[in-house]
Q: What sequence folds into this?
């Protein structure tokens, strides 16, 4: 009898967790982004992209100028972050002295994925 009670409790707890996760996801949106280094080489050929993905940290700044999140990318420069709906500014946080990141403005909508590219300017000219 104790085993049956434990199974019922586990099912109820799992059902509750799924419900909560679904409700939370519906109230947020997601930014799927990629960090690229550009230009990646001092010489480029016409018609070829002169950029490459780079790992890094992205600061997500909210409407009031406060950092809403910091997210690390993978080695291919890909990152994602779930946020409440609103307008955000993204900037690569670089610990090296190479390059700078112009801010990227983006808007998060509940239940939607916003795709963006954040560029780290290498300074190569």
A:
């Amino acid at each position: 009898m104790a085993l049956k009670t434990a199974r019922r409790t586990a099912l109820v707890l799992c059902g509750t967790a799924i419900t909560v996760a679904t409700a939370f996801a519906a109230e947020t949106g997601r930014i799927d982004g990629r960090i690229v280094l550009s230009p990646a080489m001092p010489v480029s050929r016409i018609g070829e992209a002169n950029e490459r993905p780079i790992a890094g940290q992205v600061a997500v700044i909210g409407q009031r100028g406060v950092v809403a999140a910091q997210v690390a990318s993978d080695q291919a420069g890909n990152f994602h972050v779930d946020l409440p709906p609103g307008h955000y500014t993204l900037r690569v946080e670089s610990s090296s002295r190479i390059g700078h990141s112009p801010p990227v403005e983006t808007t998060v909508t509940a239940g939607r994925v916003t795709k963006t590219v954040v560029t780290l300017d290498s300074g190569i000219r």
Observations:
- The longest strand covers residues 29-38.
- The CA atoms of residues 42 and 124 lie 6 Å apart.
